[in-house]
Specification:
binds adenosine-5'-diphosphate, 16% strand, 205 residues
Length: 205
Amino acid sequence: MDNRYKTVLLFGAPGAGKGTQGKILGTIPGFFHFSCGDVFRSIDIHSELGKVFYEYSSRGELVPDEVTVKMWAQNISARTVIGDYKRTKDLLILDGIPRTTAQAKMMDTHIDVLKIVHLVCKDQSAMIERLRRRALKENRFDDADEKVIRRRWAVYEKETFPVLEHYTKDKVLEVNSEGSPAVVLSEILRAIAPIQSAHFKGFGD
Ligand code: ADP
């Protein structure tokens, strides 16, 4: 039996809208949203892992693969133990992980990727604007500075974009994320709601 987590990946450049969509999806029974960046940010900055996270993210760089995947595996397993994530009922929505091909390979034994939702926003200035607004609202040190934002994009293009090649093409759905959150959401749901119902009978508690 395939015991891996049934998963949908939310994919896209920084500022493309993964977080916004992921948060909404996570409020719907039958979906469990896991944002790698949010979990990293929740770690005590004075802890060993917190220091590593700060060191890399403040430069707009990725945390090393081994550390990231280990943190993810431990965290998701803890969430199943506390019953936050019900693996027999919830489709896992991964946001911000895997972010390198090496991470994708390491995670193959844990996740069964059913769909990849690739959010595409061609308007760079709109993305910068989104990141800036978020930096002010959420007090994010990595998005306050345009130099760091540009570094994050360069890292995305070089290390993250190739992750798409790791999966078969038929799994990838491109969604234009320039529309309103509701329009983008409806397009995502049209693709993933049938996946949720095909794999899970009950939902919620
Ligand atoms: P965004 O959604 O704006 O792209 P995140 O909040 O997901 O950014 O991530 C913030 C930072 O956390 C990243 O710049 C990186 O340093 C670190 N991080 C998050 N996810 C990963 C990952 N899968 N691998 C390595 N580093 C990560």
